[in-house]
């Protein structure tokens, strides 16, 4: 059995449980199939795995290299569990480079006003996205998939899908955003139409370009801590709540719950409700 054969069996097995399995398969095909797909399982050694790691580091980020090698490790474990292979796992003892993906940058209220002003004057779809994200703490994918039917104007709420965790939560918005949403809903052809008329990739690209001009002129491209990117809005949501006076002990308790049960939907819904009632300048 070759590594390619093993990957086909593994992805077939994972197809019913992994949401983005095609994305995972495509990633594996692009970066590993040509390099090692032809190699027999018993011929791929720990030394080969270490060399593969070094080769991948040339063009890929640390997180991507780790992900590919962890996936390869899982494949070996799968074929062993099915008694299709009985040798060693060459990736078992690989030491992965430590990640430091913590983003420290958030937008100040002046930054927010500047961003909203530019977005409003250049791209209304991005403007509406930023308003929604600042009000709910939603990720790009979450905001991009809000439908007309998800908006509940009677209590200024909306249903959001947290795709990363395959869950939903309720967000809240102020009266200013309520008017914007009302006008947008009237302009949509059906209740299943998305509020934002741009695909997720377009939102990321267009908003990222605006942020680069406004905030990233003197910041290195690989400075993840300080560069402003679309995900910064999610970080800004919680940071501005803390600055505005959200009780620290409550945040602490909620974060403990989050770490134990990974229920970010409950946490975000709660924070969004709090954001509405302390009337942040967003």
Largest sheet: 3 strands, antiparallel
**What fraction of residues sit in β-strands?**
under 5%
Strand order of the largest sheet: 1-2-3
What is the gyration radius calculated from CA atoms? 22 Å
- Percentage of residues in helical conformation: 55-70%
Query: Based on helices, strands and strand pairing, what is the structural class?
Result: mainly alpha
Q: What is the 3D form?
A: elongated
Query: How many strands?
Result: 3
Termini gap:
57 Å
H and E string: HHHHHHHEEEHHHHH
Give the integer mean of the pLDDT values: 85
Number of helices: 12
Which residues sit in consecutive blocks of at least 5 with pLDDT less than 50?
Answer: 251-264
Structure overview:
The chain is mainly alpha-helical and 282 residues long. The radius of gyration is 22 Å and the shape is elongated. The N and C termini lie far apart (57 Å).
Quick overview of this protein structure:
By secondary structure, the chain is mainly α. The chain contains twelve helices and three strands, in the order H-H-H-H-H-H-H-E-E-E-H-H-H-H-H. It has helices at residues 3-14, 21-36, 46-59, 62-81, 109-122, 124-136, 140-144, 175-186, 200-215, 232-244, 248-261, 264-278, and strands at 151-152, 157-162, 167-172.
Summarize the topology.
Blueprint: H1 3-14, H2 21-36, H3 46-59, H4 62-81, H5 109-122, H6 124-136, H7 140-144, E1 151-152, E2 157-162, E3 167-172, H8 175-186, H9 200-215, H10 232-244, H11 248-261, H12 264-278
Antiparallel strand pairs: 1-2, 2-3
Helix pairs in contact: 1-2, 1-4, 3-4, 5-6, 5-9, 6-10, 10-12
